[in-house]
Automatic annotation (TrEMBL):
GO terms for molecular function: 4-hydroxy-4-methyl-2-oxoglutarate aldolase activity; metal ion binding; oxaloacetate decarboxylase activity. Gene3D superfamilies: Ribonuclease E inhibitor RraA/RraA-like (3.50.30.40). Substrate binds at G98, G99, L100, M101, R120. Keywords: Magnesium, Metal-binding. Mg(2+) binds at D121. Pfam families: RraA-like. This is RraA-like protein. Its cofactor is Mg(2+). It comes from the Eukaryota.
Length: 222
């Protein structure tokens, strides 16, 4: 049986685009792309930062939601190697994640955090060299607007254009191209397709660089 760390190590050899290509071949919606989430730390859409790991999900809800507030702070239970995925209700102007959260996540060995909403303390995140992907940035804390209702539960991407669910343990990967979700049960099939596609694309690239048409190279090698 393939070890989870081995799967993560293999994923890091590829890009988010490679994962999406494989998932499109497997008919997974949008190739697993999670729209609107981009890199903010350690740099803004620059550098070689790449994160990959199983999702540790955090669900924020409006204060008016009848669900009780989660009894403990989620950040103290982040598994080593995981990617923290924080889900904020759509259109909340307050930040739902900050520098202290990254300090704790970094200590516990998290691979990085993805904030489906706003975060703050950008200079602290960068000072830690901690990877942050997010929808946007803000200054105000969350307490007047939202509360954590659940941890490690399925959450929906806060997008009007997609209906994608992020489940605990599904693989998340982020790089300069954006963020993708790789369902756990498709990881083996996707990795096999990714290897074949990257090898084929390498041959196509080599030939078109020498003058062969893209159509011909694609027909020959893909």
């Amino acid at each position: 049986m393939t070890d989870e760390r081995d799967i993560v190590g293999q994923l890091k050899k590829f890009t988010t685009c490679d994962i999406s290509d494989a998932l499109c071949s497997l008919k997974y919606p949008n190739g697993g792309f999670l729209s609107g989430l981009t890199m903010w730390s350690p740099e803004r859409q620059s550098g070689s930062t790449k994160i990959a790991g199983p999702a540790y999900t955090v669900q924020y809800v409006p204060l008016s939601d009848p669900a009780p507030k989660h009894s403990t702070h989620y950040i103290d239970h982040v598994p080593s190697g995981s990617v923290v995925f924080v889900s904020s209700p759509r259109d909340v102007p307050n930040a739902v994640y900050g520098g202290l959260m990254s300090a704790r996540a970094h200590y516990l060995g998290a691979a990085g955090s993805i904030i489906d909403g706003r975060f703050r303390d950008l200079e602290e995140q960068r000072g830690l060299n901690f990877p942050i992907f997010a929808r946007d940035i803000g200054t105000a804390p969350p307490y007047e607007s939202v509360k954590v209702a659940a941890v490690n539960v399925p959450v929906k991407l806060q997008s009007m254009h997609q209906n994608i669910e992020i489940r605990p343990g599904d693989y998340l990967m982020g790089d300069l191209n954006g963020v993708v979700l790789l369902p756990r049960d498709l990881a083996g099939k996707a990795l096999e397709l990714m290897r074949k596609r990257v090898e084929a694309d390498g041959k196509v690239r080599a030939e078109i660089s020498k003058g062969m048409s893209f159509a011909e190279a694609s027909k020959r090698f893909r």
